[in-house]
Amino acid sequence: MNGYTLMKLNKINDFRVQPAWYEYVFLYSVTAVSSIILGVSLLNKISGLYGWLALILIISVSYIYSVIKRTRDNRAKQYYLDTIQDYSVPELQQILRRQQKNKSEYMIITRRINYLQHTINNH
Questions:
Q1: Sign, CA torsion 62/63/66/71
Q2: What CA–CA distance (Å, rounded) separates 10 from 48?
Q3: What is the pLDDT of residues 58-98, one digit of tens each?
Q4: d(C-alpha 101, C-alpha 98), whole Å
Q5: Cβ neighbours of residue 5 under 8 Å, at least 6 residues apart?
Q6: Which among 5, 50, 68, 100 is least surrounded, fewest beta carbons within 10 Å?
C-alpha cells in the first residue's frame, strides 16, 4: 500500500451509511402524529385505545430505527476491517499512531496487528 492510501483511511464513519431524508421524515411524522394522538387520548377527548396504539407505534418505530442504526454500525466496522485486511504490520502501526485509544478504530487495528504478529510468530 502506498502512503496516499494510508492517509485516506481515517475513521469508521467513512464507511457508515447515513439515513436518507425520507427515513427522517417518516420517523418525525410518525412521532408527531403519535404524540398528538397520545396527548388527545390523555385529555380524554378520544378513546384510550388510540393512545395505547400510538404509544405502541412510537415504541415500535424507535426499536426499528435502533436496529437499523446498529446494523449500519456493524456493517461500517466490517467494511473498515475488510479495508485494513491487506495492510502489513508497519502500515497498521502507522495508522494506529493517528487513532485515539478510546475509539473503535484503535481497537480494531490493535486486534489486527496482534493477529498478524501472532500468525507470523507461529509460522
A1: negative
A2: 51
A3: 999 999 999 999 999 999 989 888 888 888 888 888 888 88
A4: 10
A5: none
A6: 100
Backbone φ and ψ for 43, nearest 5 degrees, come out as -85, 5
pLDDT 10s digits, 81-90: 888 888 888 8
Exposure class string for 33-59: b at 16+ Cβ within 10 A, else e: ebeebbeebeeeeeeeeebeebeebbe
Q: How far lies 30's CA from each of 33, 59, 86, 98, in Å?
A: 5, 11, 44, 42
Residues 6+ apart with CB under 8 A from 120: 89
- Residue type (1 letter), 102: N
Whole-structure pTM value: 0.71
